[in-house]
Design brief:
Keywords: Electron transport, Iron, Iron-sulfur, Metal-binding, Transport. By secondary structure, the protein is an alpha+beta fold. The protein has helices at about 15-20, 45-50; strands at about 1-5, 25, 30-35, 55-60. The chain has a two-stranded antiparallel sheet with strand order 1-4. A two-stranded antiparallel ribbon has the order 2-3. It binds FE3-S4 cluster.
Length: about 60
């Protein structure tokens, strides 16, 4: 599995980074980047649920 950000959908809300900073980090483009694509940390699901544009997903 792999955690991915839809850069088109991301509006730079940054709640993903605040909920799960070991996995998500804001990039220079003002959008989220995944810094640990394989993470199974519980906060990943929290971030998926909290993202206002549903930009975060998990690819199998
Ligand atoms: Fe973007 Fe959603 Fe995070 S809008 S910055 S992926 S909370």
């Amino acid at each position: 599995m792999k955690i991915v950000i839809d850069k088109e959908a991301c509006i730079g809300d940054a709640i993903c980074e605040s909920l799960c900073p070991d996995v998500f980090q804001m990039g220079d483009d003002g959008k989220a980047e995944v810094i640990d694509e394989q993470s199974d940390a519980p906060c990943v699901q929290d971030a998926i649920d909290a993202c206002p544009t549903e930009a975060i997903s998990i690819e199998e």
